[in-house]
Design goal:
The protein has a 6-stranded parallel sheet with strand order 1-8-7-6-5-4. The protein has a two-stranded parallel sheet with strand order 2-3. With 305 residues, it is of the alpha/beta class. Strand 2 (46-51), helix 3 and strand 3 (78-82) form a beta-alpha-beta unit. It contains 13 helices and 8 strands. Helix 2 (29-41) runs antiparallel to helix 12 (272-286), helix 8 packs across helix 9 (187-198) and helix 9 (187-198) runs parallel beside helix 10. It has one domain (2-297): Aldolase class I (TIM Barrel, Alpha-Beta Barrel), CATH 3.20.20.70. The structure holds 3-hydroxy-3-methylglutaryl-coenzyme A and magnesium ion (MG). Residues 18, 179, 181, 209, 211 line the site of magnesium ion.
Length: 305
């Protein structure tokens, strides 16, 4: 195992988007700005800021334009946002973003409940987003949700997720993030899914987006790492949730991921102490304790082994 580990890994922070979209009480703009500033101070270089989706569907992120326009990020920090359709792309471009992300599910029922579209209709919408975004000089990331399981349909055939991922890459996405949306994945399942993807797609085109709903996210990330995945999505202090499991833990906590990686000698470019501070900011702005482990326990002060 140790011979296959990389010297560095890229962390894609999703807390302002995936985390805050799940909060029952919308977080005020100032709280979002404070969180993003703390994430930038911790050294995160890729941050998903918000979503340019329908404010009727996700009222928590209705201030997307104001937030995007009010953040002054250093030039080496890339801010991104979800865009489901041409309207979302136009809003993101007008707000000055250099990167966006399109998203769909590998299961029809979840895709319809999440975006009011079939999988094919989502691809029709993306044909009006990805080419114009690339022509405007933006980068586009893709997401495939419910790859590890769907709350309505149960098991999802791996081949379907692989094909959707290939289509997103063919359309022009620079990378596709593979989602365990409801946090049901196990390490063996992760091995099967990632191996199937890697048999057809280069590792640098893939990321893992793991939710820690059942406590398996870090174990699944380690399996992905061993198989060659070098990009992981995470959310500070585990901010987030699962709409299908009220009260459950959110995304894989960024501190937990960074602690494990740095402790294994894998560089992330992130300052763990400052990241723990960002986790405290997250707790303050959402006014509740968050589930991640390392922001509670603190870093270890012993030499890594
Ligand atoms: P729809 O109701 O079918 O939209 O929603 P429509 O095209 O029929 O338009 C209806 C109205 O919405 C119109 O306004 C549009 O202008 C407006 P009206 O004429 O009635 O006043 N509208 C918009 N407004 C602002 N921005 C837009 C936009 N588009 C339409 N972009 C739609 C379809 C896709 C818009 C809707 O279903 C939607 O916004 N869904 C978003 C759901 C969402 O954000 N889910 C969470 C993110 S996915 C996720 O969390 C998974 C992930 O983390 C990975 C993982 O965990 O696996 C990424
Ligand atoms: Mg998610």
């Amino acid at each position: 195992m140790l011979e296959t580990l990389p010297s560095e890994v890229s962390v894609y922070e999703v807390s302002p988007r995936d985390g805050l979209q799940n909060e029952a009480a919308p977080v005020p703009l100032d709280g979002k700005r404070e969180l993003v500033a703390a994430l930038i101070a911790a050294g995160l270089k890729r941050i998903e800021l918000t979503s340019f989706v329908s404010p009727r569907w996700v009222p928590q992120l209705a201030d997307a334009e104001e937030l995007a326009r009010s953040i002054e990020a250093p030039p080496d920090v890339v801010l991104s946002a979800l865009c489901p359709n041409a309207k979302g792309f136009e809003r993101a471009r007008a707000a000055g973003l250099r990167e966006i992300a399109v998203f769909l599910s590998a299961s029809e029922t979840h895709n319809r409940k999440n975006t009011n579209k079939s999988i094919e209709q989502s691809f029709e919408a993306f044909a009006e987003v990805v080419p114009p975004a690339l022509a405007a000089g933006m980068r586009v990331r893709g997401y495939v949700s419910t790859v590890f399981g769907c709350p309505y349909e149960g098991d999802v055939p791996i081949e379907r997720s692989v094909r959707i991922t290939e289509r997103l890459l063919e359309l022009g996405c620079y990378q596709v993030s593979i989602g365990d949306t409801i946090g049901v994945g196990t390490p063996l399942q992760t091995r099967n899914i990632v191996s199937a993807l890697l048999s057809r797609i280069p590792a640098e085109k893939l990321a893992l987006h793991l939710h820690d709903t059942r406590g398996t996210a870090l174990a699944n990330a380690l399996v992905g790492l061993e198989l060659g995945i070098r990009d992981f999505d995470a959310s500070v202090a585990g901010l987030g949730g699962c709409p299908y499991a009220p009260g459950a833990a959110g995304n894989l906590a960024t501190e937990d991921l960074v602690y494990m990686l740095e402790g294994m000698g894998i560089r992330t470019g992130i300052d763990l102490d400052r990241l723990i501070e960002a986790g405290r900011v997250a707790e303050r702005v959402v006014k509740r304790p968050l589930p991640g482990k390392v922001h509670l326990a603190g870093p270890r002060r012993l030499r890594s082994v």
